[in-house]
């Protein structure tokens, strides 16, 4: 079988178009627009890519974008004070503090300082707890949410009873992805660096989500015939004799595409959907804060 390629870029654009329509409806009926604040401390390259695309797309959807770029030397106290200011600011409906943060800042403390109602990353314990309890009002982390949306398109009849393997157990992707798949009634296994015989485990997966951050670790023969493969990895690899770094996923794409029924590419797969879901979470959060019904389909 040769896999169909899941077009995350197109799916993200379609989602952003629906968001723009909802934002203009809200503006017309209620005279406010959702606002998203992004805080970047220091100069992590992955975060810079993210911020670049995000600011543009927030504005294109008709929303307000507030960027706070702070030097790497910013103290924990200063960052917490900024978060508290943003918590109090009614024009800010969503707050995202880019991770990773410099070592001298306690990232968990920063996350726990964000008002859970404005935590559009879905990292606050109130939201992670809500997700695991099946609370429909919990804000869901953007990357796993984007993966779920693409999976739902692949399984019009639902995912109940399917074997899902999530490779990676991070708080940002692996754990919340597993929760979402459990809620879809999949049988979920979370694999990680200590997992024994990872290839054999992956071969049992109807749904395989790779989120480990290791370039092309998942090989073609790990993929079951007809599986749907979601590649969350965004790895910059420097090839010899080439000037520019190339982006590759956690999955060896060409090999895996021979066995998979459908697969996300890198770039153009999960990445664009992550940003679109961030905007979605901001619109949803803004509607809740204003106690108006969100009419997103
Ligand atoms: N609090 C927080 N939340 C995050 O969600 C978060 C973060 N911190 N820190 C950094 C990482 C990274 N991240 C990306 C999202 C989209 C693309 C993206 O759109 N990638 C394009 C490629 C862009 C390119 O060409 O370089 C694609 O995959 O097609 C990349 C990276 C979100 N992150």
From TrEMBL:
Enzyme Commission number, as recorded: 1.5.1.5, 3.5.4.9
All residue ranges annotated as the Tetrahydrofolate dehydrogenase/cyclohydrolase catalytic domain in the record: 6-121
Amino-acid biosynthesis found in the keyword field: yes
Single GO MF annotation: methenyltetrahydrofolate cyclohydrolase activity
Pathway assigned to this chain's UniProt record: One-carbon metabolism; tetrahydrofolate interconversion
Keywords: Amino-acid biosynthesis, Histidine biosynthesis, Hydrolase, Methionine biosynthesis, Multifunctional enzyme, NADP, One-carbon metabolism, Oxidoreductase, Purine biosynthesis
Domain Tetrahydrofolate dehydrogenase/cyclohydrolase NAD(P)-binding: 141-289
UniProt xrefs under InterPro entries: Aminoacid_DH-like_N_sf, NAD(P)-bd_dom_sf, THF_DH/CycHdrlase, THF_DH/CycHdrlase_cat_dom, THF_DH/CycHdrlase_CS, THF_DH/CycHdrlase_NAD-bd_dom
Residues reported in the UniProt entry to bind NADP(+): 168-170, 234
Catalytic activity: (6R)-5,10-methenyltetrahydrofolate + H2O = (6R)-10-formyltetrahydrofolate + H(+); (6R)-5,10-methylene-5,6,7,8-tetrahydrofolate + NADP(+) = (6R)-5,10-methenyltetrahydrofolate + NADPH
Annotated coiled-coil segments of the chain: none
Description of how the protein assembles with itself and partners: Homodimer.
Role played: Catalyzes the oxidation of 5,10-methylenetetrahydrofolate to 5,10-methenyltetrahydrofolate and then the hydrolysis of 5,10-methenyltetrahydrofolate to 10-formyltetrahydrofolate.
Family to which the UniProt record says this protein belongs: Belongs to the tetrahydrofolate dehydrogenase/cyclohydrolase family.
Full protein name: Bifunctional protein FolD
Species name: Congregibacter brevis
Name of the encoding gene: folD
